[in-house]
Amino acid sequence: MKLIIRLYKFMRPALDAAVGRLAALFADGQRTGAFRKFDGVLMGTALRASIDGVADRLVKGLDPDRCADELVELFDRATRA
Question: Which residues, listed in sequence order, are joined to residue 80 by a DSSP beta bridge?
């Protein structure tokens, strides 16, 4: 458990930066009307977690095209204006 906590503390700045960049992209899309109104940080966190969550499954043989299609559909529906 201590290793997990240390790893999380080590990775936290990178994760926060990635989510921040995604939130900025979502905010741009909201300003242009491409996206509906939603919490960009929460949506960025969900997107980052989705990508991270399928990485292990891809290594184990999940079809990357199928995975990409599903994630695109999921977040398209979640963000569409």
Answer: 35
pLDDT in tens, the chain (81 residues): 676 667 567 667 767 889 999 999 999 999 999 999 999 999 999 999 999 999 989 999 999 999 999 999 999 999 998
Compute the C-alpha angle 79/12/44, nearest 5°. Answer: 5
pTM of the model: 0.79
Q: Which residues have a Cβ under 8 Å from the Cβ of 64 and sit 6 or more positions away?
A: 58
Cα dist from 29 to 18, 20, 22, 44, whole Å: 17, 14, 11, 13
**CA 1/CA 5 separation, integer angstroms:** 6
Give yes or no for a contact between 43 and 23, defined as CB atoms under 8 angstroms apart: yes
